[in-house]
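Our consortium's second objective concerns turning raw sequence data into structural hypotheses that experimental partners can test. To show how far this objective has progressed, the report includes one record in full. It was chosen at random from the queue rather than selected for favorable results. The single chain below, 122 residues long, was entered without modification.
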Amino acid sequence: QVHLVESGGGLVQPGGSLRLSCAASGFTLDYSTIGWFRQAPGKEREWVSCIRGSSGIPWYADFVKGRLTTSRDNAKNTVYLQMNSLKPEDTAVYYCARTVRCSGDPSTFDNWGQGTQVTVSS
């Protein structure tokens, strides 16, 4: 059975860093594209990044470039989202999900994890 489980969220001060993990089971990352999304209270789910299954090449939304880095460890079957220079507006629940082709459209992803809360506050 396919599962994605996010972890690593928490409370961090502005300017701080966090690394989120998305552990996959029931399939291997080599052949799957994984996306990160976030959803702040009262807002729609927003695409953050993808990492392509075949190549491992990451792809980012414009607003996160330079601060967030997506990577994967195939041996651990885990995708990571390293977040640096965090801002209060980064506060959201962060989700990972699987897709065949990254379009940034949440409806084209499935096997969503339960999410992990990131709160950026002093």
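The partners drew two points from this record. Residues 8 and 84 are 14 Å apart (CA to CA). The mean pLDDT is 94. Both points have been shared with the crystallography group to help prioritize constructs.
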